């Protein structure tokens, strides 16, 4: 999987890069079954703005391209790592839903073919 990580209004440290990589590898292992060269993910992390009076507000945004499909998740939290975790959970849910829907449609098509074949045989 090709991963591009961008930091906005903050510094991109190696710890943040490793943390994001670890979260994305979990999604890749569990849900993505296409060739790795067909998968790319653009990640943007950072501070929302610098004008907040009650503290910093961090965000994490994942844009995942798998084959011809596009998945997006964005989260804002008071902690950068919490924002990454929350966005990863949302992205995982979106990918899982799509994969489950695709598998259900395949099974439904198989049942339909099987019922047609039963009607044809005597």
Walk me through this protein's architecture:
The chain is of the alpha+beta class and 122 residues long. The protein has one domain (2-92): Double Stranded RNA Binding Domain. The chain is 48% helix and 28% strand. It is built from two helices and four strands; from the N terminus they run E-H-E-E-E-H. It has helices at residues 14-31, 80-120, and strands spanning 2-8, 39-47, 58-66, 69-77. A four-stranded mixed beta sheet has the order 1-2-3-4. Helix 1 links the parallel strand 1 (2-8) and strand 2. Helix 1 packs parallel to helix 2. The longest helix is centred in the C-terminal third of the chain and has 41 residues, at 80-120. The model has no long low-confidence stretch (mean pLDDT 87).
Query: Helix count, per DSSP?
Result: 2
CA(first)-CA(last) distance: 51 Å
Which CATH class is shown? Answer: Alpha Beta
Write down the domain tally: 1
Mass-distribution shape: elongated
> Radius of gyration from the CA trace?
20 Å
Helix content: 40-55%
SSE class: alpha+beta
Q: CATH topology, which one?
A: Double Stranded RNA Binding Domain
The CATH architecture designation is: 2-Layer Sandwich
* N-to-C order of helices and strands: EHEEEH
Helix/strand layout:
Layout: E1 2-8, H1 14-31, E2 39-47, E3 58-66, E4 69-77, H2 80-120
Parallel strand pairs: 1-2
Antiparallel strand pairs: 2-3, 3-4
Care to give the gist of this entry?
This protein is α+β, with helices and mostly antiparallel strands and 122 residues long. The chain is built from 2 helices and 4 strands; from the N terminus they run E-H-E-E-E-H. The relative contact order is 0.15.
